[in-house]
Write a structure and sequence with these properties.
It is a single chain. With 317 residues, the protein is of the alpha+beta class. Helix content is 41%, strand content 20%.
Length: 317
Amino acid sequence: MTTPEPDLKLLASRHRFMREAGFGLLLASCVLGVFLLLPSRAPAQPAAVAVAAASTTPDAFANVPVGANAAVVYDLTTGKELFAKNADAQLPLASLTKLLTMYAAFSELSAETPITVDATDTQVDAPHAFQAGDTLPLADIARVTLTGSLNDGAAAIARTTAAREGLSIHDMLANVASSLGLAETYAVNGNGLDVSTALSGGYGSAHDIAVLAGALAAKAPEVAIATTGATATATTEAGRSITAKNTDPFVGTIPGLLLSKTGYTDLAGGNLALVFDVGLGHPVAVVVLGSTEEARFTDAEALVAATFAHFAGVAHL
């Protein structure tokens, strides 16, 4: 199912603001960090004073408008939720299910494992870009599949991985979800397409997807980073070039972005998962579930800006 383009002029202007604010807040954080590392000449403060000071630290997330049904800001370094709205609610995932498929594939197969697309894979709904018989290394087909949210590529990867393990796709994905402790995650297929008007191809919580996105970015960083570009290109063994346009048009506006994955179906609404660095080697995940096609980006934008404000120690206005 092809996702309509959002209002780019409106959202781009908002993202320019977020980018400028984000960089400024990140710089402020660095300056503050250097200042705090300087030796203190003041006498030690009583514990009560320290507690009182901590209680007055501004809450950067206090006034963040998030219209999505569920959302989370998850610090992947500390394992703490910095912001949560219905973060444990089980909701339809749409194409965020592809993150689970990719993690399963890279857990079982090598990056060079050849993946051959068959006729059944090409019969899924759009977006798709492959032809029956196309063969590519796992890393290459995964890059273009995640970037363009290609359903045929995800179907081929899920089918190949499940066959290698001698399992059904459902059982293969269930095992991976269990191994990561994703208590609310359940997948019927490998691409997240709705099975019917009442059944989604995958379910999970904002918290689970934050953990999953962080795990995939760590396991297959070269694939994850491909999702931060405007396009991704791969070449089949037969020499056919395949280029996929990123389904997130604003990847270039987020500082330190490590992974971006969109999702949209009738049952799920608009979903988005992001992983980005707030400092050197300090990744944070932002996940939005049950928003709209356009508002998933503005919801995430507000949470990203608030995250940088949080680490700079200032309130988000």
